[in-house]
Design brief:
Elements: E1 2-6, H1 13-24, E2 27-30, H2 31-39, H3 43-64, E3 72-75, H4 86-93, E4 95-100, H5 103-110, H6 125-143, E5 148-151, H7 157-166
Parallel strand pairs: 1-3, 1-4, 2-3, 4-5
Helix pairs in contact: 1-7, 2-3, 5-6
Length: about 170
């Protein structure tokens, strides 16, 4: 079974995926890290050199190339569900969990990690908060297609494990 963790950048997808994979004995797949391994460069560098459109195509292709038979926890990129038919594909090929968080909480988490994130690296706090609010509005129709939605505030790995096992 594949479990896809989706949500805005900074909501904790990668951190939770690492812990959840250990708890369930599943393979961990971080989509951005997988792309970086394939490319031999960072997502930020690829983004800067080739643009968002090329990155989103590569991201979709990488997502759909995942081994169909393996049990895995997949931490997706924040925009992954919003392009092509990625969200429908993830719902058809596993369980999707949207880790929902308010814009202010996301901005607080992202404030010190901006350099690694090409979409926000040049934004001050006010611009960052505005950007997050705008993107959440744009992405909501995609994120809300997830099979399950959980609050990312105080979310524990145990909470996710219980949700997954109860719906396996």
């Amino acid at each position: 079974m594949k479990i896809f963790l989706i949500g805005f950048m900074g909501c904790g997808k990668t951190t939770l995926a690492k812990k959840l994979a250990v708890r369930l004995g599943y393979q961990l797949i971080d989509l951005d890290h997988l792309i970086e391994e394939k490319l031999g460069t960072t997502v930020a560098s690829f983004f800067a050199e080739h643009g968002e459109t090329a990155f989103r195509q590569l991201e979709s292709d990488t997502l759909k190339s995942l081994d169909q038979d393996q049990n895995a926890i997949i931490a997706t990129g924040g925009g992954t569900p919003c392009y092509f038919d990625n969200m429908a594909w993830m719902n058809a090929n596993g369980k999707t969990i949207y880790i929902e968080m308010p814009a202010a909480a996301l901005a607080k988490r992202l404030e010190n990690a901006k350099t690694k994130r090409p979409l926000i690296k040049d934004l001050d706090h006010t611009a960052l908060l505005h950007f997050i609010k705008q993107k959440l509005l744009e992405r909501a129709p995609h994120y809300e297609q997830a099979m399950f939605t959980v609050s990312g505030i105080n979310l524990s790995v145990e909470d996710l494990k219980v949700l997954i096992l109860a719906n396996a």
